[in-house]
Amino acid sequence: QVQLSEFGGGLAQAGESLRLSCAPARNTFKFDTMAWYRQVPGTPRQLVARINISGDGSTTYADSVKGRFTISGDYAESTVILQMDKLKPEDTAVYYCHGIGLISHRDYWGQGTQVTVSS
């Protein structure tokens, strides 16, 4: 079982920036796509951004973060980064890293990291 680990997160004020990064315990494990999801207690986990890390690097963003968040990834290192700019209080959530195995096509999740934005 491959465990993804998230780094970054924490506290920020509205308008500030935070950077999340994610990597597996073994960088020899390759992913097809990697993504960031977020979840507020009592609500479903929602996609924030996704990158086709094994292919053309195409990206998808939730409408609520377009123009403010940027996802990037490194296929060789199996890492994904979420740069979050112009943060808003409504960005407050637990952020989860997600990957789909290149060979297995299985889902892999991180433990989550808290992001809190104050107004």
Provide an overview of this structure.
- The chain has about 120 residues and is mainly β.
- The protein is built from no helices and eleven strands.
- The chain has strands at about 5-10, 10-15, 20-25, 30-40, 45-50, 60, 70-75, 80-85, 95-100, 105-110, 115-119.
- The strands form two sheets. Strands 2, 4, 5, 6, 9, 10 and 11 form a seven-stranded mixed beta sheet that branches.
- A hairpin with a 6-residue loop joins strand 4 and strand 5.
- The chain is globular and about 45 Å long.
- The termini are far apart.
- The mean pLDDT is about 95.
Number of strands: 11
What is the first-to-last residue Cα distance? 39 Å
How would you state the average pLDDT, rounded? Answer: 95
Over the alpha carbons, how many angstroms does the gyration radius reach? 14 Å
Shape: globular
Helices and strands: which structural class? Answer: mainly beta
Helix content: under 10%
* Helical stretch tally: 0
Sketch the topology as an H/E string, one letter per element: EEEEEEEEEEE
Low-confidence stretches: none
- Estimate the strand proportion: over 45%
Question: What summary fits the major beta sheet?
Answer: 7 strands, mixed
